[in-house]
Write a structure and sequence with these properties.
Number of strands: 0
Order of helices and strands: HHHHH
Largest sheet: none
Radius of gyration: 21 Å
């Protein structure tokens, strides 16, 4: 719940920022000189890109959460078997060990979205966020029945 609240607050702040920047872009365009119109158009591009990115990221999170809920209902969420340091951080060797199991599971069933979901969690635990995101995107695509290239 805390993560959802943080995400909602961050998204609201970003939308406010995009509106503020967009209004400045409109004001520059209304000035009417070649220079201010050029800057105004350039300034308007930033909120558009930001809103697109925010929308795509929100869709990704919603789909990943839906997969997690479905996997939880099936009893297939990965069990937290990671060792932790006294400070509560995940032990790197433990994360690597679990990752090796998840990778083998995924190689054995490359078309199963569930194994890709669990691999994404293992990547995340191993602090490899880019690969975690790609594995989750693959899990989402397989769940949706889309073809996925390697």
């Amino acid at each position: 719940m805390r993560a959802k609240l943080s995400y909602a607050i961050t998204a609201a702040v970003l939308v406010f920022y995009f509106v503020l920047v967009g209004s400045r872009g409109v004001m520059l365009i209304q000035s009417g000189t070649v220079l201010t119109v050029t800057f105004g158009v350039a300034v308007l591009i930033l909120p558009v890109i930001g809103l697109w990115f925010l929308w795509k990221n929100t869709q990704f999170v919603r789909k990943a959460n839906a997969l997690a809920a479905e996997l939880d209902a099936e009893g297939g969420l990965p069990v937290d078997e990671l060792k932790r340091t006294p400070g509560g951080r995940i032990d790197r060797d433990s994360a690597d060990e679990v990752f090796a199991k998840r990778k083998a599971e995924t190689e054995a069933a490359p078309d199963d979205w569930r194994s890709w979901f669990r691999l994404a969690v293992a990547y995340h635990d191993a602090r490899d966020t880019p690969r975690a995101r790609k594995a989750m995107q693959r899990a989402i695509a397989l769940h949706d029945g889309r073809t996925v290239e390697a």
